[in-house]
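Below is how a single chain appears once it has passed through the pipeline. First comes the sequence as given, then the structure the pipeline wrote out for it. We keep one example in the README because the format questions we get most often are answered faster by looking than by reading.
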Amino acid sequence: QLQLVESGGGLVQPGGSLRLSCAASGVALNYYTIGWFRQAPGKEREGVSCISSRDGRTYYADSVKGRFTISRDNAKNTVHLQMSNLKPEDTAVYYCAADGGILFRLCEPDEYDYWGQGTQVTVSS
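Resulting structure:
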């Protein structure tokens, strides 16, 4: 039973930074492909950034390339999403997700089996 917990969300001004964390208890996230997804009101859930358990391959949505970085901290059994130069359009609930199998599509929501509860990120002046 894999349980994921997100943290680090909050209110930030445009141009600011936040670091989101995805933590697991009792299961090594090193064995799982991890994805960060977000969903804004009235919009579909979209893949933001994902990292493969197989080869470390990463994916970034075009809208966040150069601004967001996904990384693993195996000592703390966590995965981070460092977000910089935040924009109002980044406002959403951000979810951490995990999958232990082979994914044909690295950062599509339907590929992932396990999900956290989400953390709110609000970018506003």
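The mean pLDDT is 96.

See the next section for the split statistics.
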